[in-house]
Amino acid sequence: MEVQEKIKDLSPWFHNIHLPGGQQTAENHFLGDFPAFKWRKIKKILPESLKGFKVLDVGCNAGFYSVELARMGAEVVGIDIDEHYLKQAKWVAKQFDLDHQITFKQMQVYDLAKSEEKFDLIWFMGVFYHLRYPLLALDILSRLTDKYLLFQTYSTPGKKEMHVPLDVEFHKREILENPAWPKMVFVENRLAGDPTNWWIPSHQGILSMMNNCGFELESSPDDETYFFKRNDKNPAIDKTWNASEYFSATGQNWKQIVKKKTGIKTY
Fold it and tell me: pTM higher than 0.90 for the full model?
């Protein structure tokens, strides 16, 4: 099948990908040359080479970022729950002769809770606000890297920031009404016509959640896009407080895990 025919056969496309032969998968995309225009900004803050990097692309869609990261030398694992997108991504990777360097899997982000793989960079763009349980997803991903996380999400308007105290005193809870206090807005019905847009964080909400999950901001290469590096020295972080809750929420037997790690039997 000719390339142009295959593009039509695999439509509709959300990623406009410029193929080696000059064809484009979504030339008339309603956002323009998406996501290439975002990639051009993000690429500036990445190393010139990603050779030796192992990257996890969460919600890889048609594989635009997976391919670009592989072209920079990375070994990439791309996951998505949509079989249609994965068919597109696998075909695109072959067009660039990168199918040996990229592995695509049909997975939910929550499935990664049972993964023992480690990644140098987690690519987490355009997924967070679609998740019913977003902080659980961040907890899961935080266990998969000791290095970097690239994050993009819808956010509420504004860039207000504040110093968030380590403790809010019981009788001084008025600080919670500060306009800059980290927050998430719940979308009961639809946002932009999409019933899967559930949670929209504020700018400080993004920084605080990431901070709580062990990351600190390195840079913000594009609007609503953040590049974080791992930081486990934050005194606010204590990964032991929610251990049993985390393992139960991810379908793991926390009693067996505690016994395996500590030798202590729980009842």
Answer: yes
